[in-house]
Structure formats: C-alpha cells, structure tokens
C-alpha cells in the first residue's frame, strides 16, 4: 500500500535510493576491512575476587566454607574496542593514524547510508535492505595500495551518486536533486581530493632511496603516517 505522504516520488527513484544506500554500506564495509579483519573482540573474562567472609551459622549447624572464587561483573567493553586487530596498527605494519583515518571513513559512509534511508522514509518510500557485498580483498598491502583502492572506491560511489542525480532530474524530482547536492556530491569531491593528495604524498615519500627526494618505502610510510595524518588523529 502506498504511503499517504508520498508525492512526486517515482518508483525508479525509490529503488535507486535503496541501491545507493546499499553501496554506501558496502563502502563502509570495505573501509572497515582496511581497519581490521579478525572480527569482534570477545568480552573480557570476569574478574575473580577472594572468598567472601565466612558466614555465621546458627549454633549446632556446621559452618560452610567457601574455596572457589566468586565471579563478579565483567569490565565494560568500549565501543572503540570492537575492532582489536587494526590492520595498520599491527606490529608488522605500525601505521595507527592511517588505521584511524580508514575507521573514520567507514563511519562516514555508514552515516551516508543512514541519511539516504531517512530520506526514503520522509518521502514516503519503503526501505528495502539488501545483502552487503563482501570486500574483494581481506588484506591490504602497502599504505599506497590501500589509499589507491580507497580513491577508486570513492570514485565509484561518486559516479553512482551522479547517476542517481541524473535519474532524479529525468523524473522531475527537484527535492532529491537538492538533497544530493546539499549533502553528498560536494562531500564526495572533497573526499576524492583528499585521497588524491594522500596518494601524491605517499608516492613522493616511497619512491625509493634512489629516487629524487625519495625515502625507503618503510620510512616514507612512517613519515606519512606521522606527519600527513597527524592533524586527523
């Protein structure tokens, strides 16, 4: 049954918004794979405390003694601790700021998906969630390799947003066009520019010791993580 608030919202636009939200969730999933890939951290084991005081028993009854420790409530788990195995914070990678950068990107992509779903309900459309495609890779090699993959991902998302905007214009939906222009398209351009800058700096720093002004790859990645991403940490 159609929503009573639905007006000038074409079925094709409704379906495309659902697909766009799914793509944003996929992008969030990909960024999450760049952050960590070993799954959620199990809750910490409960802390054991010493035996309680020996209870007093009525006269003529044996006194029960306690030999086993008593378990108390486990320590709370922080939200940030859900991903313990940060790929770029591993001891053999050691680029923590880059890991936090990708985690922030994952959160932003998820927020973009939520924004599209909120728009869907405001326009009287129906949210239809779909399966989220698994990232094509489970491990990311160098920092340059990961940032280049992130750039291609953002370009793909941007193209999908442009296609959605064009569809909205063809169906005469100025509200959807304005929504995309105000909240998505400009952000995508900024994200693409930032990733392009990071790639340029990484290439400049990791061209090899023999290159002009270059440093060994490992040192270059360290300098990039320490200096280029410092203001984001």
Automatic annotation (TrEMBL):
Belongs to the ferritin family. This is Ferritin. InterPro entries: Ferritin (IPR001519), Ferritin-like (IPR012347), Ferritin-like_diiron (IPR009040), Ferritin-like_SF (IPR009078), Ferritin_CS (IPR014034), Ferritin_DPS_dom (IPR008331). Fe cation binds at residues 109, 112, 154, 188. GO terms for biological process: intracellular iron ion homeostasis; iron ion transport. It catalyses: 4 Fe(2+) + O2 + 4 H(+) = 4 Fe(3+) + 2 H2O. The lineage of its organism: Eukaryota, Metazoa, Chordata, Craniata, Vertebrata. Residues 37-56 are annotated as: Disordered. Keywords: Iron, Iron storage, Metal-binding, Oxidoreductase. One of its GO terms (cellular component) is cytoplasm. Stores iron in a soluble, non-toxic, readily available form. Important for iron homeostasis. Iron is taken up in the ferrous form and deposited as ferric hydroxides after oxidation. Residues 57-206 form the Ferritin-like diiron domain. Pfam families: Ferritin (PF00210). GO terms for molecular function: ferric iron binding; ferrous iron binding; ferroxidase activity. It comes from Mycteria americana. Residues 40-56 have a biased composition (Pro residues).
């Amino acid at each position: 049954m159609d929503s009573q608030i639905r007006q000038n919202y074409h079925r094709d636009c409704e379906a495309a918004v659902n697909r766009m939200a799914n793509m944003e969730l996929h992008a969030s999933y990909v960024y999450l794979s760049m952050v960590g890939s070993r799954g959620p951290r199990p809750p910490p084991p409960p802390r054991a405390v010493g035996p309680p005081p020996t209870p007093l028993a009525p006269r003529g009854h044996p006194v029960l003694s306690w030999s086993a420790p008593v378990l108390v409530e486990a320590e709370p788990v922080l939200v940030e601790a859900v991903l313990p195995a940060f790929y770029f914070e591993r001891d053999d990678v050691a680029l923590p700021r880059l890991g936090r950068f990708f985690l922030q990107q994952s959160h932003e992509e998820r927020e973009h998906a939520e924004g599209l779903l909120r728009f869907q309900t405001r326009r009287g459309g129906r949210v239809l969630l779909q399966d989220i495609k698994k990232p094509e890779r489970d491990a990311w090699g160098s920092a340059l390799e990961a940032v280049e993959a992130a750039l291609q991902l953002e370009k793909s998302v941007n193209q999908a947003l442009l296609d959605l905007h064009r569809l909205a214009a063809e169906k005469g939906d100025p509200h959807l066009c304005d929504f995309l222009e105000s909240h998505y398209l400009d952000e995508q351009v900024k994200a693409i520019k930032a990733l392009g800058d990071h790639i340029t700096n990484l290439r400049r720093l990791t061209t090899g010791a023999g290159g002009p002004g270059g440093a060994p790859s490992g040192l270059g990645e360290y300098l990039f993580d320490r200096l280029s991403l410092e203001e984001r940490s």
